[in-house]
Write a structure and sequence with these properties.
The structure is a homodimer. Chain A has about 550 residues and is of the alpha/beta class. Chain A has 4 domains: about 5-165, Rossmann fold, CATH 3.40.50.970; about 185-315, 3-Layer(aba) Sandwich (Rossmann fold), CATH 3.40.50.1220; about 340-520, Thiamin diphosphate (ThDP)-binding fold, Pyr/PP domains (Rossmann fold, 3-Layer(aba) Sandwich); about 525-550, no CATH class. Chain A has 22 helices and 18 strands. In chain A, the strands form 3 sheets. Chain A has a 7-stranded mixed sheet, with helices on both faces. A 6-stranded parallel sheet of chain A has the order 2-1-3-4-6-5, with helices on both faces. In chain A, α9 links the parallel β7 (about 200-205) and β8 (about 230). In chain A, α3 (about 50-65) packs across α14, α4 runs parallel beside α5 and α9 (about 215-225) packs parallel to α11. The longest helix of chain A has 17 residues, at about 75-90. The first copy, chain A, is globular. In chain A, about 60% of the residues are buried. Chains A and B meet through α2, α4, α5, α7 and α16 of A and α2, α4, α5, α7 and α16 of B. Chains A, B: GO terms for molecular function: acetolactate synthase activity; flavin adenine dinucleotide binding; thiamine pyrophosphate binding. Chains A, B: This is Acetolactate synthase large subunit. Chains A, B: Belongs to the TPP enzyme family.
């Protein structure tokens, strides 16, 4: 006899879904019970749903296949929504399994009753389905997995009523193959090749799945051959980086700066990316960042074959044999003295091991991270794709589960860390090789900047206290200890470097709390030089204009 | 010159909305800046949106008027959804202010773009509105507040685009009065009076706003006169209790037990309550708990005047002069020896001060709380209305802000505490008089019971590990210290009592971590005697049947 949950479990592992990040409740108990029937399924418990969904996101970014989440009705899904939003914006495959009341119980409007489908549609517009019967449940699951895996990847939600799960009559379903992506058609490739040959200033904006070695090398050939500038979207889902790979400059978060990066670009070619817009709107500033005179071409849509399309384009312009320019190996040196956010990034750049996974949710504090790690040993970097903070620690959990042999280093702001701090417990329980570095500047630093950018700089004390994390200052090391994670507070660059070396030597999770008190003007002082240094190609005239505009 | 945010702020305080529980982002910066223009508005920062929404819920339960939340776009609302669900189910007035992108920015589908209205509709079906212009914003707000305050109370959501907030031309609006509730009509009252006079066994099920002194006294007169049994819904939004008030037995969470409480009831009269259904469905068990032969009458619908309706009924049956039976003063005695969950509840019953607010989210560990505090000094108790755990600590924040002169004691399970643990920081920052008692049994104890109740008791090790919070066991005292809250771990009943006395003596927040390791069979051993003891009226035959059914 096989119940629905047991058949579902078999269907999942047969389709390669072998990890479930779970936070179950009563309606999920049969799914939980079925875990023991299926040795190939690993269940990782999270103490908050946002950790489970963010872990599934991080897992899929590194494993290139979906994990399942297991969530408790509409409220569990609600708690997981922010990180599912990030997965959706990052085009990451995730399979949500959301338990529901038994079908016949719904009409009684019991306490936990809510409209799950509506909430789910927000993050998985392409696939939301409530399983109607035990017999058809596994087919629903196979279709949900195929939907999640359909290029470019998406969140799919399967709602599992308790009686569909517990009833007998389950039949496992075979995996369904997602459609094979096609390359860009000949006419598109030819039109873009012609545009490139025109000699106009051209940039290639790469996003989504294009920031992996094969596609990056292909794009770098185009750059070497045709003088095309390579840019990456602001918040890549996953970007392969480091010595021996092409260096691709990311578009800046600050619209003011992104506008500068796009100055004089006459043709923008999109590769699994959107034409850039500002993150937020600001009074009197433009949202759409592409210059008015710039023509936008889409070479590869998100559901197309990126590498094949780039190869076709290289053939068309004759760049196939070009020699791509690669990033030379270069470490930034060991930091010394009083600790600053830059020195934390420098320590990471200097000391990060081979093959690391870097999770970047340091917000203002990690602005220098990309520069400091550009020539470090080869690594992957994953970033805040949807802007919903609280992604970093859960992403680190998922990445470490996906890649147990690779060290994960997560750089996290203090404000952001607090949204999903419960992730530390899962790191301890699973003994994951994650080093979490928390920048403790006791402030929502970015909001101090945004307050001015939106023109509300005359804010008084009450307003400023809303951006201030003092009174009390959080002790993250103590919190981590409370969740079973080895932790240390560091106040100097030397301590920082030593703590990072120790963490890389000793298996299991570590937390390093980098105490970097600083004022708003300190943040601004940091940002301006970063802007100027991190864009070596910036024309001098622009640098000067920028300096006037952004000086403290 | 008045911008939208400034006009909105004035509209809020003029309508009595004087507290805003906030977790702002860039799109909310003008609202934040406007805080300093309005001395009457208190802004309380939360480090996670679920804390802000749960605090607004707790505030309104005690203040009997809404607070505002300030949330950052759809993802901020998502993070706050679970506690808004609890507020919705508890019919609690809450005004959500959800910032959104500028109206003209929406079309660009920037990173944080999502469908806010759809998410909001789930928790505020009665009022969701996106403000369209600065000129009409304040009128929208006045209508939203009136909607929130319309009996019985609801969550209302006002979505505030950044440009509507920052543009000049705001005009404050005067408060709008919500409609006045009407009492039950004469025909309904007469029909119910006739039913009571029939002599059939009758119970009054009281919920919502009926569990306050005036209505409870009116119902107690009816009980004294006509032999009507008084029952309260399982999870009251707020119930006034203690010595000198009528004791009203709550319907049990366990459907098996609630069924027993309703056995032989021939007529059930609803007072701002729903006919009882089981919390979850269980294989082979009924969802609807009212006996087949029982007739259900609605005396007071949620939008009606409860006290006036009860008074009319009392007049009709001649109970107006009856002498209500009141709970005598009685403390349970000081607990001694090895610490158990019951002894924690006993310590609270023995030592709680006058006029306390008790927040009960202890799940299995606080089953004895009602019994232990029944004869304590008068107090309010607020409970988990919607079943979405993570409500207790935020509710305590809100209750303490609403009633700064009343001590708040929150009893919280370890599993539930972790959903919104960030609430501790807000308690520290605002120096709230909250004593949080965390029952640390290192388990999702209730799920161990539910696993059996849904018939999945053959669960193996992997399944059981999903319900187990060991490896590592959380140290809540350390976590609390990390957030600036004075904390202590207690292992004996004597230490527990001493810690509680200390906490009541010293102002500001305290956390007491009650370490009560216990096995599943321990939980079951505890539950059975509780069931039998807490329902003194239970017929012996039923006790015996129950003992057979539920014995470990």
């Amino acid at each position: 006899m096989t119940n629905g949950a047991q058949a579902l479990m078999k269907t999942l592992v047969d389709a390669g879904v072998e990890v479930c990040f779970s936070n179950p409740g009563t309606s999920e108990m049969h799914f939980v019970a079925a875990l023991d029937d299926e040795p190939k399924m690993r269940a990782v418990l999270a103490l908050f749903e946002g950790v489970a969904t963010g872990a599934a996101d991080g897992y899929a970014r590194m494993a290139d296949k979906p994990a399942a989440t297991l969530l408790h009705l509409g409220c569990g899904l609600g708690n997981g929504l922010a990180n599912l939003h990030n997965a959706r914006k990052g085009k990451v495959p995730v399979l949500n399994i959301v338990g529901d009341h038994a079908t016949y119980h719904v009409k009684y409007d019991a306490q936990l009753q809510s409209d799950i489908e509506t909430v789910a549609r927000n993050v998985s517009p392409g696939f939301v389905r409530t399983a109607k019967s035990t017999e058809t449940l596994s087919q629903d699951a196979a279709e949900a997995i195929a939907a999640a895996r359909t290029a470019p990847g998406q969140v799919a939600t399967l709602i599992l009523p308790a009686d569909v799960s517990w009833s007998e009559g389950g039949v496992p379903s075979a995996p369904l193959a997602p459609p094979t992506p096609e390359p860009a058609d000949d006419a598109t490739v030819e039109a873009i090749a012609k545009a490139i040959r025109s000699g106009k200033k051209t940039a290639l904006l790469m996003g989504g799945h294009s920031l992996r070695e094969p596609s990056m090398l292909a794009a770098a050939k185009l750059a070497a051959h045709g003088g095309v500038t390579l840019l990456a979207e602001t918040f890549p889902t996953r970007i392969e980086r480091g010595a021996g790979l092409p260096y691709i400059e990311r578009l800046a978060y600050l619209a003011e700066l992104a506008t500068v990066q796009l100055t004089d670009v006459e043709q923008l070619i999109l590769v699994d990316a959107k034409a850039p817009v500002s993150f937020f709107a600001y009074p009197g500033k433009k949202s759409y960042l592409v210059p008015d005179t710039c023509q936008v071409h889409t070479l590869v849509a998100p559901d197309q074959d990126i590498l094949a399309s780039l190869n076709k384009l290289n053939d068309a312009v004759g760049a196939s044999q070009a020699e791509p320019k690669l990033q030379p190996a270069k470490r930034p040196g060991r930091p010394r003295g009083k600790l600053t956010a830059e020195k934390v990034c420098k320590a990471v750049g200097e000391l990060m091991p081979e093959n690391a996974i870097i999770v970047d949710e340091g917000i203002t504090s990690s602005l220098m991270l990309s520069v400091m790690t550009a020539g470090a040993p080869r690594h992957d970097m994953i970033t805040l794709t949807g802007g919903a903070i609280g992604q970093g620690l859960p992403n680190a959990v998922g990445a470490a589960v996906a890649c147990p042999d690779r060290p994960v280093i997560a750089l996290i702001g203090d404000g952001t860390a607090m949204y999903t701090i419960q992730a530390l417990w899962t790191m301890a329980r699973e003994q994951l090789n994650v080093t979490s570095i928390i920048f403790n500047n006791a402030s929502y630093s970015v909001l101090n900047i945004e307050l001015e950018r939106v023109g509300a700089e005359e804010a008084g004390e009450k307003a400023k206290s809303q951006l201030d994390l003092r009174g009390p200052v959080i002790n993250f090391a103590e919190m981590a200890n409370g969740m079973g994670v080895h932790a240390v507070r560091v106040h100097t660059a030397e301590e920082m470097a030593k703590a990072l070396e120790y963490a890389q030597r000793m298996p299991g999770p570590h937390l390093i709390e980098a105490v970097i008190p600083e004022s708003l003007s300190g943040v601004k002082r940091r940002i301006l030089p970063w802007m100027l240094r991190s864009l070596p190609s910036l024309p001098l005239s622009v640098s000067k204009a920028l300096k006037r505009k952004l000086a403290p």
